Amino acid sequence: MRARIVAALPRLRRFCQAMTGNADDGDDLMQATVERALARSDQFDPQTRLDSWLFRIAQNLHIDAVRRTRRRGAHLPDDELLHVAGEDGRILVENRSELAVAQHALQQLPEDQRAVFVLVVVEGQGYREVAETLGIPIGTVMSRLARARSRIGDVLGRRAVA
Amino acid sequence: MTVTPEQEDRLAAWLDGALPEGEAQAFAMELAANPALRALEQEWRANDRLIADAFAPVAEAPIDPALLRKMGLEPEPAVASSLAANDNQPARWRRFAPWGGAAMAAGIALAVMLGRPAPVDPLSQALDRTPSLASATLPDGRRIEPTLTVRAADGRWCREYRSAGSIALACRNGAGRWTTEGEGAAPAGQPQSSDGIAMASGPEGAALDGAYRRLGASDPVDAGAEARLIGGGWK
User: Fold this and answer.
1) How far is A81 from chain B (nearest CA, A)?
2) Contact call for A126 and B53, based on CB within 8 A
3) pLDDT of B100 strictly over 70
4) Architecture of domain A1-76
5) What percent of chain A has pLDDT over 90?
6) Which of A36, A34, A26, A47 has its CA nearest to residue A8?
7) Dihedral sign for Cα atoms in the order A10, A16, A18, A24
8) Cα dihedral: A76, A119, A162, A159 (round 10)
9) What is the ipTM of this complex?
10) Dihedral Cα A16, A22, A25, A27, nearest 10 deg
11) What's residue A29's pLDDT?
12) Which residues does the UniProt record annotate as the domain PhyR sigma2 (chain A) (predicted)?
């Protein structure tokens, strides 16, 4: 179990960073996800995919955290993501700002749309897997993706079209 | 022409190859007849690519062993590393590498990185992760020390490394495996391991000149670029 979690960890980390909007909160979420997965490893069905199970745990923990934060009235500073300092050379800065732009676009999505979009577009999961991971009908996966892409199009404009 | 929300739903499924075959054909015809729908298809496709590409390196980055331990996922010591103890660096490196040995400040400990999805051989792992002039010990006890990083004309990244009296040039394929492109005895004057036997090899570095020529290798990259390659999974 531990070895399989370690193998899935890089992708879990990416999912967590995409959901939370930054590396630090993403790693916190990854850590909480692994803790819970290890504590509840008896609940994992070996017939199913471990990565999907981890994504589901992460998504549930993330939604819980977002609800707690909202109740406290805090808000996430989206705009700070775009202020990326960089004196380490051009390539690094370009890479960072691409990630910052991508993060910024994702943060404009409602949580449920973001989860669907990240699982399909970033993690490459199929609609059926996503439906199972998130416990929603396939039709909902499709319509959330359409809403997510439409919103991302509004945020990014046509800047990505070469 | 405009695009209806219902068409947007099907466009999303079309982009992900999730439309059933009959519907996909019908949608292809709608797409051909509707420039606004085509423009939206292009825009969504490009945005998808931008975001997927931006996040790709995140899943390639090493996970700190301390973090693994904190999560109760003890890292196995697959690759141990320490700074090369000697300051007698090969002349080829001195000639090519403009950043100087100071860049490899003392105290660099190579992170033990786990969790890559595809298992690759220990040498490939070490070449993936070890900065030039640091050294890595493979599980079989062999010590290797990368000395420089170049790019082959076909786009592959290649590294020269030393090991027990020999030098070699290896290039990385898309699956993360480093394959040897040239090998020879280390030039005289280079540190030898206890079992290494120095052999006459003409001018320093000449053993690999054929391989460098055949690959159409670029000049070596500087330390910053190499660090980005190591951090970014050699993309």
Assistant:
1) 14
2) no
3) no
4) Orthogonal Bundle (1.10)
5) 65
6) A34
7) negative
8) -20
9) 0.84
10) 50
11) 96
12) 5-57
Q: Residue holding tokens 């993360």?
A: B176
Q: How many Å lie between the alpha carbon of B37 and the closest alpha carbon of chain A?
A: 12
DSSP string over B43-60: HHHHHHHHHHHHHGGGGG
Nearest Cα of chain A lies from the Cα of B124 at a distance, in angstroms, of 17
Q: Where are the domains of chain A?
A: 1-76
Tell whether A31 is within 8 A of chain B (Cβ). yes
Question: CA B166 to CA B162: how far, in whole Å?
Answer: 6
Could you list the beta-strand ranges (E) of B104-156: 134-137, 143-151
Q: Which residues on chain B place their C-beta less than 8 Å from a C-beta of chain A?
A: 5, 8-13, 15-16, 18, 40, 42-44, 46-55, 57-61, 63, 67-68, 70-74, 114-117, 224-225, 228, 232
A-chain residues within 8 Å CB-CB of B234?
none
Segment B22-57, tens digit of pLDDT: 999 999 999 999 999 999 999 999 999 999 999 999
